[in-house]
Amino acid sequence: MRLVRLDRQPSRVADDIRAALASLGRGSTVIGGVALIGARPAGERPIEAIVVLPHGVLIVIGVDLPDPALRLEAPLGAPWKADGWPLVHEEDAVNPATEALDLSQTCERRIAEVAPGTAPVGTIIAVGPYVETVDQPAADLAGPVRVLHPTPTTMLAATVSLATAHRPRSVEQARALIHGLAPDAPEFSDEVLLGEGFSRFTDDAPPEEFLPAVPAQPSRPPAAPVPVPVAVAPEPVVPEEAVVPEEPTAAEPVPPLPKPSPPLRPSPVPRPPVAAAPSAPPKSRTVRWLPLGAIGLLVALVVAAVAVATNSGDTAASPSTQPFTAAPPTSSAGRAPVESLTFALRAADADQRCASHAFGDVQASLQSTSCSGVRRASYTASVDGRAAAVTIGIVEFPDGGQAAHFKAVADTPGGGGILDLAAETGKWAGEAPKFDNAAYASKVDGNSVCLVQAVWTPGPSTPDDPGLTRAAKGALELPAS
Question: Which of the four pLDDT bands, split at 50, 70 and 90, describes residue 133?
Answer without folding.
Answer: very high
